Structure formats: C-alpha cells, structure tokens
Amino acid sequence: MNLLAFDSSTETLSLGLAWDAADGPRLRTCEGEGGRESSASLIPALMDLLAQAGLRLADLQALVVGRGPGAFTGLRTACAVAQGLAWGADKPVLPLETLMAVAEDARQRHGADRVVAALDARMDEVYAAAYRHDGRRWHREGPVTLGAPQALVLPAGFVLAGNVQAYADRLAAAALVALPTAAALLRLAPAAWADGEAVSPEQVQPLYVRDKVAQTTAEREAARQAAALRQEPGA
Question: What's the fold here for domain 3-203?
Fold first, then answer.
C-alpha cells in the first residue's frame, strides 16, 4: 500500500510515507516542529515527502492521521489537512488514536505488548489509555482518560510509555520513551485498513478529551478572588 501519515498532536510534527517501489516496500520519515507551528509547515512538508518518492496524492491508497488526544491546535490542523487533501484527491482517511501510536512505538522500541500509553496534556495533567497487542493489532482496554499523573493506574503486567518523563516523581512507574510517530501510524494502518476503519474525508474528527484549554477572563478573575479569600485570616 502507498500511505501518507502524519501526526501533530505533540511538540513534534512527524511525517511518514510508505510506498511500494520497484525494488520492494519503502519507508521515508521526517520530523518538524509540531503544535501551533505545524499549521504553516504541514502541507509543504507532505508535498515534499511525496515529491522525493516521485509520487502524487493520486498514487496513494489512503492518508493516515493521528486524531488525538493531544494538543488542540495540532489536532485541528492535522484533521483539517487530512480532510482537505483526501477530499481533493478522492481518497479515504485512516484516523488513528495517538495513544495507540504511542503503544506501537513502545512495542517497536522496547518490545512491549501491554502498554499504558500516556501523553503530556499540560496543565499538570496527562492523557492515558491501556492497550494490549494480540499479535496482529492493538486493542484499547477501557476509556481514554485525562487526569493528574499520580492518578495513573498501571495494571499488572503493563508498562508505562509516552512523553511524561517530566512527571517522573509522581508516576506509578518509570515511563519508557515513546511518541505517536508517523512510522508507528504506518505500522498500525494495514490492520486498520483490513478491518474497514477507513472513512471518507468529512468523517475525520479530532478526538478531544479535555473540554476546555483556557479559562475565560471572568473565570480567571473569580479564581483570583477565591484564592485571595482563602488567604485572608479566618477564611
């Protein structure tokens, strides 16, 4: 299969292209600055990746995108780009969970097949979900959660993996380094494709777990006043 994959859910923008060349399957990946910065660089980087392989969007079977959870701006950018490119080229999209890609990266790097995947959600919180590999593909066990690092539960036999090393003093176990890379998405894609998970461009939606990323001015003022009251004598 010829597949173009990208993820901008973290601070790292990850791009990858897998294609069938005359001498066999080929893979090319690259990285850039993710999050807010990816909005300007993502499409040119994808087009350059295709050009390096001598391919066009029309030569792809599908686009593969990390749909979240992760940074709001990065998710919106990735899903919008996937929609636009797929719509214009009349191609389907495989929207895959970023935490599953973390689990796959941990499998590739560390040989783990039972993983609690975690990503830094900022605001002193982490996104997390448990995944088990059955020898063919990953299965999520339970919901995707958002909470304090110390609230993470590590089931027996599972390892923790992700980009949450900054919270090491509050985690239940040391976290293996793993990221939602485009290479991981491309390894996940064939099974997802075979299982009929490809969707039309208009069906691509980010997976949001946190409802809000910022307080309104009124909420900040209310919080400030509440904090001031707590500091008053007798409060």
Answer: Nucleotidyltransferase; domain 5 (3.30.420)
Q: Which of 81, 45, 44, 48 is nearest to 64 (CA)?
A: 81
Using left for φ > 0, alpha for ψ between -120 and 50, and beta otherwise, residue 127 falls in beta
Measure CA 172 to chain center: 22
Contact 115, 106 (CB under 8 A): yes
Residue 12: predicted pLDDT: 93
Over 50: is that where the pLDDT of 234 sits? no
- CB-based contact 70:39 (threshold 8 Å): no
* The pairing of beta strand 3-7 with beta strand 12-21: antiparallel
Instruction: Please give the single-letter amino acid code of residue 141.
Output: E
Q: Is the pLDDT of residue 224 over 60?
A: no
- 168-191 in b/e form (b: 16+ CB < 10 A) is eeebeeebbebbbbbbbbbbbbee
Q: Does the pLDDT of residue 108 top 80, yes or no?
A: yes
